[in-house]
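Exercise 7. Predict the joint structure of the components listed below.
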Amino acid sequence: MTAVDANTVPAGGPMTDLMLSVSGLEVKYGNSLALRGVDIVVPHGAVLAVLGSNGAGKSTLARTCSGLVPPTAGKILLDGRDITGWSPHKIRRAGLLYLPEGRGILPGLSVAENLRMAVRLEPREVRQEATDRAIESFPVLGQRMKQRAGSLSGGEQQMLSLARALSVSPRLLIADELSLGLAPLVVDMVFDSLAKAKQADVTIVLIEQFVHRALAFADRCIILRRGTVGWEGPASEAAAEAAENYIGQQAAHLA
Amino acid sequence: MLQYIIAGLVLGGIYALAASGLVVTYVSSGILNFAFGSIAYFIARFYYYLNTQHKWAILPAAIVSVGIAGPAMGVVLYAFLFRHMRLSSQLIKIVSTIGLSVALPPLALIFFGNETILSSPGLAPRPVKVYDFLGVPVTMDQIIVYICVVATLLIGFLVLRFTDAGLKVRSIVDSEAMTSMSGVNPSAVSLCVWAVSCFFAGLAGVLAAPVIGLDQGNFTLLVAAAFAAVVAAKLRSLPIAIVVGLAMGIAGALALRYLPQSSSFTKAAIPSIPFAFILVFLVYNIFRTGRVAEEENVGGALDRAIRPQLTADDLIGVTSEPTKALQASSYWGPVLIIGIIALLPLFLSAFWASLVGIAMAYALAFLSYTLVTGEGGMIWLCQITFAGVGAIGTAQLVTEHGWPVIPAILVAGLITAAMGTLLGILTIRLGDLYVALVTLTFGLLMEQLVFKLDRYYNFGQGVSVGRPDFATGSNAFAYLMIIVFCIFGLLVFNLRKSTAGLALSAVRTSLPASQTLGISVLAMKVLVSGLGAFVAGVAGGFLASYSGAATPDAYLTIAGLVWLAVLVTNGVRSNTAAAIAGMAFAFIPALVQSYLHGNWVQTPTVLFGVGAVLVVLNPDGVVTNHARQLKQVLFGRPSKHVLPEITSERVAPIGSSGATLSASGDQPATATMAGDS
Amino acid sequence: MTSALPATETEPVGAPSEEPILSATGVTVRFGGLTALSDVRITVPPASIVGLVGPNGAGKSTLFSVLSGLLRPNAGSVSLSGHDVTRARPQARARLGLARTFQHPELFAGLTVREHLVLGHRIRHSRSRLWTDLVDGRAWRSAGEQENTRVDALMDLLGITGLARRDVSSLPLGLSRLVEVGRALATGPKVVLLDEPSSGLDAVETDRLSAALLRVQDLGHVSFLLVEHDVAMVLGLSESVFVLDFGSLIATGTPEEIRVDPAVKAAYLGDEPLPEVGQ
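Solution:
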C-alpha cells in the first residue's frame, strides 16, 4: 500500500473535503530530524489512527500540527486554511483541539477553572451549557469542582482533559495516547467519549501505541517509523502490519 | 514600640510590594528582574522631576510617572527584550537584566538632571500632616504607604483569584503550553504582567523615596531586601514573599528599637537583616531537599517536552566552527593587543599614559570574572567585594605593618582566595539564580559591615598605600601592570588547556555528564572560586596601589555590576576581551569627561549596560565575535572536517537542556514517600 | 594481542562467563501511590550486550535510574562488579566501572570530540593531572603515549577519527551519540548503560551506531545495556533481552525467544495479557 499523496486527491474543489492536509512535513528536534517527508490527509468527519513505536514521531506530529513546535519544512492545512507556522493559540481558535499525552490539564488550577479555560472560546451565552455538557459526560468532575486538578487521580485527570473536547465542538481533535497508564475500565470510557465526539461529526486523529482498540475505532491508519510514514491504508487492513511493526518486520516497507 | 512597628511596617510594606512585583514576573516569564530597583529608581526620579523640579501637582505627577511611565516601561521592556529571552539560559537572563540595571540609573540622571537630592517628597501633600494614632505620631506619608500597599495587594489578590484576567495569568504560570492550547495568547498575558510589575516598581520607588532617600545606593539595598523575601518564597509564592517582606521591615524596626543607638553592632545589624533572612531560608531548604535550584520555568510536562525542540543560547560562548584551524591564529590576537597596549605609554601624554596602569589593573579584575563566570559558569556579583578586601588588606599590611607592596598584595590575595573558596563550597548546592542573589547580598553585606568600619573607611579617604618602589612613575607602573596582567593571563591560559580546564568546561556545560564521568564537582568549583577570588583580591591591591589609597567607596557592589556588564559586552571567555574591557573602562569615561559636558558623562555607563543587555543577541561578546570575523578575513574560512554523509545542519547547542530523567542533584532521589519507612 | 581499548584491570582475556558485571534483584520503586517497578531483576554478564525493552510507561527509565545511581529503590539491590551499589551515587559507580550515555546528548560544548575522550580517559587513569597540570606545564606538552594510543584507537573503532578536532556543538545527533559512547568507553568501564541510543536517529545512523557497538564488543571487555524502544535494533544486537510491562518483568531470554513470545507481543499491542499458558 503506498502512501496517499496530495496529488491523487480528486480535482474539482476537494481540498475542502479534507479537514487536515499535511504535506512534506519536516520537523527538527534539537539537532535530529524527528519527522521527514510526512504526508497525511484526513477527510471531514473521518478518524485517522497514527501508530508507531515510541520515538517514531507520533507526538512530534501532533505537536507540530497544533503549533507547539514549528516545522522546518512542509505545509499544514486545516480545512483548507494554511496554518503552517501559526502560534498555538491561533490554531486553537481555528478549531484544532489537541489533547496532549500525559493529561492535558492545568494542574495548579481547580477543576472548575480548568473547565472555564476550556470553554472560553465559546460565545458567552453558551458557556454554561458547554460546562454542563462536560459535567454530564463525567459526573465525577461535577463532584470535584473545587479540587485542584493536579490532585485528581490519573483517570479523573484524563476525564478532565477529554471534557475539553466534549464541552466544545472542535473541528479537528488530535488525541495523543489518551489511554496510557489507565485502567481498562477507564480506557473504555475514553473510547466511549471519543465515539460521542465522532457522532458529533468531529474529525479525529488518534495517536496510540496500543493497536487494536485504535484500529477498531478508526477509518484509516498510518504507521510512523523513525519519523517517516512507513505504511498507510484503511484501518481494517492495518492490524497485521501494525502487529509486525513493533519488531520492525514490515510486510511492505517504504524507503 | 508602636512607633517603631508603624515605621517598620512602612518599609516592610514597600518590601512586600517590591517582592510581589519580582515574584509575579518570575513565575510568569522565568526572568528574575535584577533591574527592578533601577526601574523603581527611574520612576521615583521621574516623579521628583515632575513634582519638585517642574512643580506639577502631586496627583498628575503620580499618574504620569507611576501610572503611565512605569507600565509603559514594562510593556517596552517585555516587547523588545524579555519576550525574546524566553528560551535563553539563566545566565543570559541574569546578565541581561543586570545590564539593564546598570543602564537605567545613569539614563535617569541624563534625562532628569544630576543634582544631589537631599530630601524627596512622597505622595502626601506638603506640608505633611501628622495624625495621632494611639499616642503615636503618624505622618500622612506613612498613611499613604499603608493605603497603597494594602490597596494594591488586595486588588491584586482579587484580580488573580476572581477575574478572567487573573485566571489567564495563573494559567500561564501553571503551563504556558496548555494555556496557548486553550486559545489564550501567552505573550499578551505576559505583557500585562510586566506592565503591572513595573507599576509596582514605580509605586515602590515613589513610596520609598521619602523614607530611604532618592539615592541609587539605598535603592539597591531596598531591592536586596526584596530579593531576600523572594528567596524565602522560593521564587514562587506570593503570600510568603509578602509576609517575609513585612517581617523584614518589622525586624529592622525592632533592631532599631532594642539595640543600643550608637553601637557599631547596631549599625551592622540592620543591613545584615536581608542576608540573615536569605541565609536562614536557604540553609533550611538545603537541609530539607538537598539542593535549592530554580526550575527552568518548568510549566508542565508538555512545556518541558517541547523545550529541546526550541533552540536556546548559552552565555558561555558556544562557537560553532572547527577549532584547530583557528587555534594557532588565536595566539596572535592577544599578542597583538598587548603589544599595542604596551606601546601606548610611549605615545600618549602623561595623563592618558597613566591611565594604562589603572586600565590593566581593571583588566586583571575583569580576568577574575573570566575565571569565575567564563570558566566556572557561575555568576558571582561579589568579585568587586573581593577586590575591595584585597585593597583594604594590602593597605593594612603596607601602612600598619610596614610590608613592601608586592608581597602585601599577594598575601591579601590569599585572604580573598580563602574567602572565595569558602563561598564556593557554601554555594555548591545552589542554582545559578540563587548563587547570583546570595553573592549580591553578600557583597552588600560586606560593604555595610566591613568597608564602613572606621579604620578602613577613614571618613571616605581609606588607608593609604603607595606604589612599589621600582614602579612609582606612571609609565613604570603601567608596564608593571601589563606584565602582571600577562602573567595572570598566561595562568588562565594554562588552566584552560590543562586537564582541570577540560573538567571545568565539563562541569559548566553539563553537570549530569560530569558526575557520571566521575568528576568531582566540588573540587572544580572550589578551584575556580578560589582562583577567581585570588585574582580579584590581587587586582584590588593593585588598584589601591595605583590610586594611592584603599578607598572602600570604590568597591561598592553596585559598581561591580558595571564591571560585569563591561566584561560581558566584550566577551567573558577571552583574556583579550578582559584586556580590552579594562582599557575601555578606564579610557572611555575619561574621554567622555574631557570632551562632553554636563550629564552626558553618564553615557559610558549606559553604553556598558546596554552592551550587557545585548548578550541576548550576542552571547560571545563583541570582542570574540569581531575576532572571529577578523580571523576569517585574514585566514580564510576553515574547511569543514566532515564525513561525507553529513549535510549542513542548523546549529543547536548541546547540554544544559534538562535531561528528561536525571535529577541534576548530587544525591540520588529516594523513591520512598511519606508512609513508607 | 594487546587490546586496543582500555582494558579493564581485573578481567583476564577470554575468561569464561561468571559473576555478572551488573545485576539488580527484587527492585521495587514506588512514587507516592504509584508502583513504577515491582520486584524486577536484570543481569548483565561480562562482555555482552543486553537489551531492556518494553512499551511506553513500562518502567524502563525508572530501572535505568536505579542502575545508574540517580534513584534509590524502595526495595531490592543493585550489584556492580560484586559490590553492592544500591545506595551509591553516580560518581561512586563510575569509579567501580559504570558508564552511561544520555537520551538527549549531554556533551561538553566548547570541547572538541577528542577532548571528550581525553577527559574521560584522564579522569580514570591519570586523575592527579587535574591538579598537577596547573603547575608542571604538562598542559602544553603533547599527551603521553598510552593516552594517545587508547584515544586514537577508540575513535577509530567508533569511526569518528575525522571529527577529532571538531567542536561538538554542531554535530548531528548520530555523531553526538557516538561521541558520548566514546567518552564513556574512554573511562575504561566494565559496563556502559545506553539510554535510548537510537532515539531520534534515522535508519542509516542507527545502523552505524549498531555496527560501532558490535565492533567495540568484539575487541573489548565491555558490556552494554541498551534501554530502547526500537525492539528490532535490540533483537539484532543483544545476547539477552529483558522485557518490562507495567513495572514488572514479563519476559526474558534470547532474541529468538523474545521475538516469538506472545506475551511480549500482547504488551506492545496493548492486548489483554494472555493467561499463563506455557510459552
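Discussion. The mean pLDDT of chain C is 85.
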